[in-house]
Amino acid sequence: MAKIIDPWGSELVEDYEKIVKDFGLETFGAKTFPKPNKIMRRGVVFSGRDLEPISKAIKNKKRFYVLSGIMPSGEKIHLGNKMVVENIRYFQERGGDAFILIADLESACTRGVTLEEAQRRALNFHIPAYIALGLDPKKTTFYFQSENKDVIHLAYEFARKITLNEFKAVYGSADPSRIMAAMTQVGDILYPQMEERMPGIIPVGVDQDPHIRLTRDVARRTKEKYKFFLPSGLYHKYTPSLDGGLKMSKSKPESCIELPEPIEKVKKKIKRAKTGGRDTVDEQKEKGGRPEECMNFELQKQHLVEEDKELQEIYENCKAGKLLCGECKNISCKKMDDFMKNFNDGVEKAKKHITKLNFVKFQ
Ligand code: SF4
After folding, report:
1. For residue range 62-77, what is the model confidence (pLDDT) as tens digits?
2. What is the band of 246 on the pLDDT scale with cuts at 50, 70, 90?
3. Contacts of 17 (CB under 8 A, 6+ apart)
4. Using CA atoms, how far apart are residues 15 and 111, in angstroms rounded to an integer?
5. In the structure, which protein residues have their CB atom closer than 6 angstroms to any atom of ligand 1?
6. What is the pLDDT of residues 272-305, one digit of tens each?
7. By residue range, what is the domain housing residue 288?
8. 13 falls in which pLDDT band (50, 70, 90)?
9. Do residues 110 and 51 both lie within one domain?
10. Is residue 299 part of a domain?
């Protein structure tokens, strides 16, 4: 039986190729979309679901949308969130209308966060953080789930279209809070098509694929009435934990880079990160390092090194034993220093313009 990867994090992906096969996904190639961004070029974005409508929309300059959600269940985010923003930005730059939903209803029903608290966190930090990470606010529509009556209406109407057994087959379990949260997400994913039917893409970690599958099932079953395009999904790998675990998580603070976080603390974490280095300097010079097993290299590949040429040089110098781990981690620390400064400045700047953003409002 295929392993169930659910959006609430009960299982982690160990074998991405197997997931592509088990989930019936498409392998993402560097030629799937024009001028791919760095995480697409480097295989961090590894798969998708039904990507052709999006590549056609980009090619033919037709309308399409890109949607992602912010879960304000905590005061901070972590470095892994940067990849979602990088992909949203990519589609914004290729003509996509961006929608960012604040999952305040989901935070309330799955994490017990009040709506007021979720809204405060989103306005004070999460939305400015996404802007600081590269989201273009001028081309983005924002909304709170609790204030979007179209989303709520769709969620309730579509709840009739799914049986409990189907829900269990997709998510592995079916407690009431998860059902409420998942149906609200179905409403979210289809909401941008209320005004005009168009293809849409949801860039997420692969653990969110169940939401895409459920939404596609619902869109098929309501085709006669709504004629929605089936949404596409784009999936990236997780940012691994600095100790070598599969996924960076705030539950393991020593191996997770939070945003924001004091830079000296982050540097200490990088210095302690698991590498693919050898036991002694002499051995490393002789045999070379193993970047494919190295969390520092993974950080550079996913987040810190923009230019492919520079990343290639690090890789080759590591393999040839010309680069030692201390020096290599210093490169990461310096880049992280610049990144964190830009991020903190970007958050402060974005906060000043928060009231000018385009929020969906209902009477
Ligand atoms: Fe990793 Fe760099 Fe050491 Fe190579 S030299 S194993 S890439 S830290």
Report:
1. 999 999 999 998 889 9
2. confident
3. none
4. 29
5. 275-277, 289-291, 294, 296-297, 318, 323, 325, 328-329
6. 999 999 999 999 999 999 999 999 999 999 999 9
7. 253-347
8. low
9. yes
10. yes
Q: How far, in Å, is the centroid of ligand 1 from the Cα of 279?
A: 12
State the closest ligand 1 atom to the C-alpha of 291, by its place in the atom list counted from 1.
7
Nearest to residue 144, comparing CAs of 174, 179, 113, 178? 113
> Measured from the CA of 277, which atom of ligand 1 is nearest?
6
Q: Is 161 in contact with 187 (CB distance < 8 Å)?
A: no
The H or E element spanning position 205 is strand 200-205
* Residues 190 and 303 placed together within one structural domain of the fold: no
Nearest CA to ligand 1 atom 5: 325
Neighbours of 195 (CB within 10 A): 9
Residue 71 corresponds to which tokens in the numbers above? 């879960």
Nearest atom in ligand 1 to the alpha carbon of residue 325 is 3
> What pTM was computed for the model?
0.93
The answer on 215 and 90 residing in a single domain is yes
Atom number in ligand 1 closest to CA 290: 6
Q: Which CATH number covers residue 198?
A: 3.40.50.620
Q: What is the CA radius of gyration of the chain?
A: 21
At 223, the amino acid letter reads K
Question: What spacing in Å lies between the alpha carbon of 205 and ligand 1's midpoint?
Answer: 26
The structural domain count of the chain equals 2
Q: What is the largest CA-CA distance in the chain?
A: 70
How far is the centre of ligand 1, averaged over its atoms, from the C-alpha of 241 (Å)?
A: 16
Would the pLDDT of 1 be above 50?
no
Q: How far is the centre of ligand 1, averaged over its atoms, from the C-alpha of 319 (Å)?
A: 8
Are residues 324 and 203 part of one domain?
A: no
pLDDT at 9: 53
Residues 107 and 52 in one domain: yes
pLDDT per residue as tens digits for the range 137-180:
999 999 999 999 999 999 999 999 999 999 898 888 888 988 99
Arithmetic mean of pLDDT over the chain: 93
- The Å distance, Cα 12 to ligand 1 centre, comes to 25
Whether the per-residue pLDDT at 7 is higher than 80: the answer is no
